[in-house]
Amino acid sequence: MQEGADYREPPPLDPDGDEPAAGPGDAAPEVRSMAVGTALHAQRLDKALVAMAPEFSRSHLQHLLELGHVQLDGVTATVASRRVRAGQQLRLELVPTDESRAFRPQAMALDILFEDEHVLVLNKPAGLVVHPAPGNWSGTLLNGLLAHHAAAAALPRAGIVHRLDKDTSGVMMVGKTLPAVTALVRDIAARDVHRRYLALAHGAPAQAHFSVEAPIGRDPAVRVRMAVVAGGRPARTDVERLAVQDGISALSCTLHTGRTHQIRVHLAWKGHPLVADALYGGKPALGMVRQALHATELKLAHPASRAPLAFACLPPADFRAAWQQVCPPGTRTAAQGVH
Predict the structure, then answer these.
(1) Closest Cα to residue 232, out of 261, 196, 205, 201?
(2) What angle, rounded to 10 degrees, do the helices at 45-52 and 58-66 form?
(3) pLDDT tens by residue, 128-178
(4) What pTM did the predictor assign?
(5) DSSP structure string for 88-110
(6) Half-sphere exposure of 76 (CA within 13 A, CB side)
(7) 218-259, pLDDT tens digit by residue?
(8) From CA 51, how far away is CA 57, in angstroms rounded?
(9) Which of 34, 58, 185, 207 sits at a 20 to 30 Å CA gap from 192?
(10) Residue of 259, 260, 262, 263 whose CA lies nearest to 251
(11) DSSP H helical segments within the chain, as ranges?
């Protein structure tokens, strides 16, 4: 989930990052050649490619065109609307799709808080994408999990049952077997997993304790955003105001549901966008240049033994320094959040 986003929802598009180039381990692409027949004479080039490789989408074949993987009579062709002529020799290199190259092991350092044969709990750093998506096809947590243990390759999403946003730090859990994944997903759906977040938001909520219960769905105007919309999926966030300093509030947020961007959307909808959350109107402050959100606490039943597990995760240095400007060390409110 993006801070608790539903594991079944696709991640929103992330405009940051570059798509990976083919590595040394990539197999040679399949090459197909044919002479343009009379039935395709004067047709668009991309339509001729669909006839040559009907199992691929037209958009993917157009992408191959743009990348220079198509030749007409031995000359690279890149314009999809170009008209072909009967008798021309058409050559197509079917390089793997970006998606097919995404799900491969990539060794990375994981900050593991707990691990056994059933479940893994880790501290995700800010800046790490959890699951491959357009703009981030490599270097994700999923790639790291595939390298960490072989069984991940046989699990849906390598065992990832919830996600944190790229720029959200903190504790998250991963199943290591199919029964464990199934149990964790059921516990999340039953709201038996406790997840608490620390947030720094603009403004001062009038109430010290309040709940935001408002449906969340895709923003109809901006594809990469979510929004409170009629007909969205039910969502509830409980919020506690711990301190306010110079127009910025330190908040503790507990999820009852896990929709994409839930905390970010709910707080922005209430007029309190997260500090440095540009997508939802939050301006940088207190030295924070990424959204001021940290998953600090996770409580769950072990997916196999059902023994209670509890984890607390200290925020990274940037968040901790910002937090302590609102909740100075030694105060009661500081003790509730950053120790």
Answers:
(1) 261
(2) 120
(3) 999 987 778 889 999 999 999 999 999 989 999 999 999 999 999 999 999
(4) 0.74
(5) -EEEEEEPPPHHHHHSS------
(6) 8
(7) 999 998 899 999 999 999 999 999 999 999 999 999 999 999
(8) 11
(9) 207
(10) 263
(11) 45-52, 58-66, 98-102, 141-148, 178-189, 262-269, 317-326, 332-336
Q: Is the per-residue pLDDT at 338 higher than 70?
A: no
**Are β-strands 70-72 and 226-228 bridged in parallel, bridged antiparallel, or unpaired?**
unpaired
- Beta bridge mates, 181: none
Count how many residues are written for the chain: 339
Q: Is residue 104's pLDDT more than 50?
A: yes
* 198/39 Cα distance (integer angstroms): 63
- pLDDT at residue 182 in the model: 95
Please check whether residue 171 is in contact with residue 267, taking contact to mean a CB–CB distance below 8 angstroms.
Answer: no
Backbone φ and ψ for 115, nearest 5 degrees, come out as: -155, 135
Active site residues: 165
Distance CA 243, CA 331 (A): 10
Query: Under the phi-then-psi rule, with left for phi > 0, alpha for psi from -120 to 50, and beta for the rest, what region is 231?
Result: left
Tens-place pLDDT, residues 16-59 = 333 233 333 345 678 999 999 999 999 999 999 999 998 888 88
One-letter identity of residue 309 = L
Beta strands 169-175; 293-301: pairing state: parallel
Question: Is residue 229 within 8 Å of 220, Cβ to Cβ?
Answer: yes
Angular region, 128: left φ>0, alpha ψ -120 to 50, beta rest: beta
Q: How far apart are CA 285 and CA 293, in angstroms?
A: 13
d(CA 306, CA 193): 12
